[in-house]
Write a structure and sequence with these properties.
Elements (H helix, E strand, L loop, with lengths): L15 H23 L4 E7 L6 H9 L7 E5 L5 H4 L5 H4 L8 E5 L8 H4 L5 H20 L2 E9 L2 H12 L10 H7 L2 H15 L6 E5 L3 H20 L2
Parallel strand pairs: 1-3, 1-4, 2-3, 4-5
Helix pairs in contact: 1-10, 2-10
Length: about 240
């Protein structure tokens, strides 16, 4: 059973040259794999979840920065619009799924229903409990139709999150990355851990597994994510 407590957050890549060379090779590999994906009746969906400041954006950038942008879409999921509030919460995600041959990344996702919406009471208890079944059925439908589905949860320690928050506050080029909501979420750290562990227990399946990423060290996290993506594409596309 997957649990956050199982993670060793001290894992790192200490040599910068080793990191840069490994990153370069993995990025070249995913470029070749994208070309094969583009001509297939498959598509790739990557989901990124994790605490604020866990490095989701940095990992997504390293996965996508050298890919053909014409067939890659990255969606940063924020609170629903008025129109979206009037529909089932999954509706807005159906509308963002990739066509065959394309690659879509969700920076936060439908799992918000069982994470932030559960903790902040934006969803009722019957709604977020029912969501586990709805999510599992949704993901099974995608995979049965040929979607290669990868789910990443980037995890950092509470001390590392605090360090990154303070760094953002003191960096004029990154001040927009931190707000009052981030600090409020931090006060509910233990609730988020409990909710995440419940999520893994109920939505980790062979056809749609979770990849838990130790993210206290950004280089290590980025390489681990890229290795998982390229490995999945190699297996599914036989590249």
């Amino acid at each position: 059973m997957l649990k956050i407590s199982q993670l060793d957050l001290t894992k790192t890549i200490s040599d910068k040259n080793d990191y840069q060379e490994t990153l370069k090779q993995l990025q070249l590999k995913i470029v070749r794999q994208q070309a094969k994906l583009n001509h297939s009746k498959r598509s790739l969906v990557c989901v990124f979840e994790g605490p604020d400041a866990a490095g989701k954006g940095g990992a997504i950038k390293r996965v996508t920065e050298h890919l053909d942008p014409r067939t890659v879409r990255v969606y940063s999921i924020v609170k629903p619009t008025t129109e979206e509030y009037r529909r089932h919460y999954m509706w807005r995600f159906w509308a963002k799924l990739p066509s065959y041959g394309e690659f879509t990344v969700f920076d936060r996702s439908w799992y918000g229903r069982v994470l932030v919406e559960r903790i902040e009471s934006f969803a009722t208890e019957p709604e977020w409990k029912r969501a586990y079944r709805e999510i599992n059925e949704f993901e099974k439908t995608l995979v049965d139709d040929g979607v290669i589905l990868l789910k990443f949860y980037l995890m950092i320690s509470k001390d590392e999150q605090l360090r990154r928050f303070k760094k953002r506050e003191n960096d004029p080029t990154k001040y927009w990355k931190i707000n009052d909501e981030d600090w409020r979420n931090r006060r509910k750290w233990d609730q988020y851990i409990t909710s995440a562990d419940d999520m893994f227990e109920k939505t980790h399946h062979k056809h749609a597994p979770w990849h838990l990423i130790e993210a206290d060290h950004k280089w290590y996290a980025r390489v681990k994510v890229l290795k998982a993506v390229t490995s999945a594409l190699e297996k599914e596309l036989e590249v």
